[in-house]
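Comment thread on ticket #2218

A.B. wrote:
> Attaching the input chain for the structure job we discussed in standup.
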Amino acid sequence: MRLFHRTTEKDAAAILATGFHDDPSAMRLRHHGVLLSRFPLGPDGHVLLTVELALSEEQLTSFKFEGPGSSNREVPEFLIPTTVLNEHGSVRRATSAEEAEGYTLQ
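C.D. wrote:
> Ran it. Output below, let me know if you need it in another format.
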């Protein structure tokens, strides 16, 4: 399953080097994990990462996110724990073709 995550250049470099990590400042929130989407979302100027996740559609459904902070109800988003991403996924910078598949929220 191919999903996308947009982040800063600094965070993208850290993710590519050592994998996803939990943000301690977010632990106080009810929801935690990494927000990924089916299509590229997010602001211009941020790095788009492609995550190839070795999970079935059924397994992915348990991580579907529609709570407060969900950026777009029309594009499925998933809040996935870092342990799941690092164990079942591989991450790389998105290609320009993948970037063009999505759209940028204004």
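A.B. wrote:
> Thanks. Noting for the ticket: The radius of gyration is 13 Å.
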